[in-house]
Amino acid sequence: MTNNDILRRVRYIFNFNDAKVIELFALADLQVTREQVSGWLKRDDDPAFTPCNDKTLATFLNGLINDKRGKREGEQPQPESRLTNNLILMKLRIALNLKAEDILELLSSVGFNLSKHELSAFSRRPDHKHFRECKDQVIRNLLKGMQLKYRGDAGPKEQSKQRRSAKPTTNKKQPTNGGFKWPSI
């Protein structure tokens, strides 16, 4: 997943407008313009698309933490210049005050099962022997689970799949309770 995908999905999940996104960046001490935000939110094939770098996404997630949990006293943490899926997972976890059970529940709500031990391996230091790299699939499914929980929908693609897979209705006559009975002897 690209940084732009994550920014778009978080914006959609919480129904943030451009002004709110700009406010979140300001909470992390970065001033951005509406044109910059618009460029980051464009589709990848749009000519006005602007790639979102790691530092920008880290700043946005820090602003989300400040918005959801309150701004920390003192100096704000510096955004990471190299952002990994493990850090994105940690920042979303902090912002939404999620426990391990909450994350596992979000993942299982979209049919992605993970053990508590696997989840804790994502939170370890990279030099730890049980550290595990968080793959795009985990982040994608976590965002999908968050969408179900916080927005209450499956998204436009999933809704169209559900409509297509639904059984078509038929005009068959339903059997009644007074159907055929064997004659008693």
UniProtKB/TrEMBL annotation:
Region ranges (Disordered): 149-185
A Pfam family that the UniProt record links to this protein: DUF1456
InterPro entries from the UniProt entry: YehS-like (IPR009921)
Bias type Basic and acidic residues, positions: 150-161
Biased composition (Polar residues): 167-177
Protein name per the record: DUF1456 family protein
Organism: Neiella litorisoli
Lineage: Bacteria, Pseudomonadati, Pseudomonadota, Gammaproteobacteria, Alteromonadales
